[in-house]
Amino acid sequence: MSLPILGRATPMVLGAKGRMGEGQTLLLGFIAGATILLGLPLGRLRSPSPGTRVGLNAVAVGILIFLLWDVLSHAFEPVDTALGALHDGSGGLGPVLGYGVLFLLGLAVGFGSLIAYEHWLGRTDTGPSGDDGHPAARPAGRAGGPGAMAATDTPTRTTTWSPARRLALLIAVGIGLHNFGEGLAIGGSAATGEIGLAVLLVIGFALHNGTEGFGIVAPLAAAEDRPGWGFLLLMGLIGGGPTVLGTIVGHQFTSDALSVLFLTLAAGSILYVVLQLIGLASRGGHRNALYLGVFAGLAIGFVTDMIVTAGGA
Fold first, then answer.
1. Is there a domain that residue 289 lies in?
2. Quick check: 233 and 62 in contact, CB under 8 A?
3. Number of folded domains in the chain?
4. Residue 3 domain flag
5. For a tag site, which of 29, 48, 196, 262 has the least CB within 10 Å?
6. What's the alpha-carbon Rg for the chain, to the nearest Å?
7. Which of 76-90, 173-187, 244-258 tops mean pLDDT?
8. Nearest Cα residue to 20 out of 181, 253, 188
9. Residues sharing a CB contact under 8 Å with residue 258, sequence separation 6 or more, in sequence order
């Protein structure tokens, strides 16, 4: 699916043109973001078998790999356009360098900030834990990744969560950054009068967000720690709420630079989470479930994208 804010989608008029009001645009953003809630109840599965745990994590990995490809391909579009303009003589080197630096900077910040967060948790870790998140003996300062890190004595909410909950939070943050970019596309289309395109984008993004909700809770379904509904709603707000915020911002103005920044921040975050989930899944054995799950997740991502593209969005 192409994002019109990056200049790739072809306008499609399914109804009357004209700037859509802020209230109507906000409703579109809410619908697109709220479907992330559909996959969250899977996080409350009771004690799935080891093979099921590996399979759930693997499907989440596949979905997130698709999202990583999707986000990076859209974020690179302004760079590609600037390079094309430089090649045919209609543009200069400035836009290429500007968008290129912004692309790499956003990717580095998105990826590096989660690495820094991991090391911070490792330094504050004084009561190590096992896979279930309960304290066990481990030297302070040892960082083992969010999927294997311990609950700490630091009196903050997130550092006392189980490893599975912290990993779910990181996934939700990465997806939330991605969904902010989707909201920009919806708001920009509505503001420029392409109401039909905005509606198609809402339908497409709603399909994608339904699968993203499952990606958030896969580590929870694979853990002994069964989350409450309040926690799941919080993850849905973090992952889906930025769609609404992006819609509001996109309705006011459009910016390729802003899109590149948020999309690459999302890509860096998603890349980090993918590496963590692959590590968790590979340690759990059941390689066939891992391979099949990753393929299934990729297939889910691409098939939903094909359906939306076939619909004209």
1. yes
2. no
3. 1
4. no
5. 48
6. 20
7. 76-90
8. 188
9. 184, 249
Rounded distance between C-alpha atoms, residue 246 and residue 223, angstroms? 33
Is residue 157 included in any domain, yes or no?
Answer: yes
Q: Which domain holds residue 38?
A: 24-310
Residue 48: both structure tokens together: 């799935």
Beta bridge partners of 129: 135
> Amino acid letter at 195?
I
Q: Tokens representing 38?
A: 């559909």
**Residues 6 or more apart in contact with residue 235 via CB below 8 angstroms:** 40, 43, 168, 169, 172, 216, 217
Alpha helix segments (H runs only) across 124-140: none
Q: Phi and psi for 257 in degrees, rounded to 5?
A: -60, -45
Residue 151, pLDDT above cutoff 50: no
Nearest to 1 by CA among 249, 197, 180: 197
Asked whether residue 2 is assigned to any structural domain, the reply reads: no
Determine which of 31-40, 200-209, 244-253, 302-311 has the lowest per-residue pLDDT on average: 200-209
Mean model confidence pLDDT for the chain: 74
